[in-house]
Design a protein that fits this description.
Blueprint: H1 3-6, H2 9-21, H3 24-31, H4 35-49, E1 54-57, E2 60-63, H5 65-89, E3 94-100, H6 102-119, E4 123-129, E5 143-148, E6 155-161, E7 164-168, H7 171-175, H8 197-205, H9 224-232, E8 238-240, H10 246-250, E9 262-263, E10 267-273, H11 280-292
Parallel strand pairs: 3-4, 3-5
Antiparallel strand pairs: 1-2, 5-10, 6-10, 7-8, 7-9
Helix pairs in contact: 2-3, 2-4, 2-5, 3-4, 6-11
Protein name: LysR family transcriptional regulator
GO molecular function, one term: DNA-binding transcription factor activity
Family: Belongs to the LysR transcriptional regulatory family.
Length: 305
């Protein structure tokens, strides 16, 4: 039997696009095909396999069980082909879109991305930040820096940094109560976001599980980076990852009154779709993190990620 009969590349390429967009119309726009041509290629593949790949409903389609099994393998196959071609050309080109938390972006990525771009001059970088966990099927992002356990279905993850925390504040604010000498001195001051579970974890570890956090004002600022800025301005005590603020400590803008730091089991991870692990620009970003972060992929939880 001829290879073209055994391996319908055109139909598989169309199927991959439709499974990604869950839309015949959007797949056609991406591939430069009419909706009729897209439907024909999908039907051709379904007839060859003897399986329905999509459930067709008014104004929407869904992958069947068979389609859900096939889609990630087909996507991975096309990514392998792209990676092989890039390797032959000796380049990893395009724009790498990185999605990150505000804090990691401002306190680590922004300071080190220049190294990545010097090492990879053919790759442009676009950095997007938010506190939301993105859905890779609904965004252009190639990789994400997430805080969590490193377990997300369908995603490959690599450990980046431990996420530990401790109270930090401006020395000027500390002086308003004659200095912070014991943990309960902190509740004499304004606590930035006392509803943050990190506070209770830290006070419990400090021997004060019943610290009266409920009596403090309930400011919520949305991200650690904004909370740190408020703490530097003297507006309250923030609970922060101290490694990100060593420059502020050195310059006298923040103090860490106690050496005690705690963790909640959530750390920083690099995540991206499992099917895209061989893409050149993603591989280059992995190598950059490995080069610049000794902790990268040390896998402290023992997970295979």
């Amino acid at each position: 039997m001829k290879m073209s009969k055994q391996f319908p590349l055109n139909a598989l390429r169309v199927f991959e696009a439709v499974s990604r967009h869950l839309s015949f119309t959007k797949a056609g726009e991406e591939l430069g095909l009419t909706q009729t041509a897209v439907s024909y290629q999908v039907k051709l593949l379904e007839d060859m396999l003897g399986e329905a790949l999509f459930l067709r409903q008014p104004r929407r389609i869904h992958l069947t069980e068979a389609g859900s099994r096939l889609a990630p393998k087909v996507s991975e196959g096309f990514e392998l082909l792209r990676a092989a071609v890039n390797e032959m050309q000796g380049v990893a080109e395009g724009t790498l879109i990185i999605h990150s938390t505000h804090t990691f972006a401002s306190h680590w990525l922004a300071r080190h991305l220049g190294i990545f771009q010097l090492d990879n001059p053919t790759i442009a970088v676009r950095l997007e930040t938010s506190q939301q966990v993105i859905d890779f099927s609904k965004t252009e992002a190639d990789v994400a820096i997430r805080v969590g356990t490193g377990e997300w279905p369908g995603l490959k993850s690599h450990f980046v940094l431990r996420n530990h925390f401790t109270p930090m504040l401006s020395p000027t604010l500390a002086e308003t109560i004659g200095g912070v000498r014991e943990p309960l001195d902190l509740v004499k001051l304004k606590i930035i976001d006392p509803s943050d579970p990190w506070w209770r974890i830290w006070f419990t570890a400090a021997g004060h599980p019943d610290a009266p956090l409920e009596s403090t004002s309930r400011s919520r600022l949305g991200s650690q980076a904004v909370e740190a800025a408020a703490a530097i301005a003297g507006h309250g005590v923030a609970i922060l990852r101290p490694d990100f603020y060593q420059d502020d400590v050195a310059m006298g803008r923040l103090i860490q009154p106690f050496p005690l730091t705690c963790e909640d089991g959530s750390h920083y991870w690099l995540a991206y779709p499992e099917t895209r692990r061989h893409v050149g620009k993603i591989r280059a970003f992995r190598e950059f993190l490995k080069k610049t972060l000794p902790s990268f992929d040390t896998n402290p939880t023992g997970k295979t990620g």
